[in-house]
Amino acid sequence: MKADLVAASPEETAAAGERLGARLGPGDVVALTGELGAGKTCFVQGLVHGLGVTTGATSPTFVLVNEYRGRLPVHHVDVYRTQSLTELLDIGLAEMLGGDGVTLIEWADRCEPLLPARTVRVHIGGVGDEPRRISITPSPAR
Q1: What parts of the chain have a pLDDT lower than 50?
Q2: pLDDT for res 57
């Protein structure tokens, strides 16, 4: 069932992510979309906490992938600076998507053809001081 939420603060955005993270299991993929500054990384920070990660999540914009250990392995991918789907395959995205952990992808609209059926879609709208509108569409494969 699709969920539409409004978050009035970064803390509420992270809390929404944490609630989703608590429900994720092996093989799940979370595809995040939204404008620059919408709060995708803030949402991910809460999400990884919900997956039992004790270190803080940081944006992997320049390194492309951060990995964390929680109750499951977590792969946090940022495809903002990638140039092609081939580049994503070269960094091992297909293996991450088929693995036993959870894969979180920021700017996921740039790699749509690679996303598996088991993808939870999260869109965050709003920038600056605006409240965030968070739309979570569950995977049809769940």
Answers
A1: none
A2: 84
Strand duo 73-78 + 65-69: pairing? antiparallel
User: In degrees rounded to 5, what are phi and psi of residue 66?
Assistant: -115, 145
Question: Are the CB atoms for 135 and 2 separated by under 8 Å?
Answer: yes
> For residue 109, what are its two tokens?
């609209």
The residue among 135, 103, 107, 110 whose CA lies nearest residue 36 is 107
* Vertex 126: Cα angle to 121 and 128 (nearest 5): 135
* CA separation for the pair 97, 133 (Å, rounded): 27
- Per-residue burial over 108-121, b = 16 or more CB atoms within 10 Å of its CB, e = otherwise: bebbeebbeebbbb
The conformation of residue 56, written as its DSSP 8-state character, comes to: P
Tokens representing residue 136 in the block: 């979570």
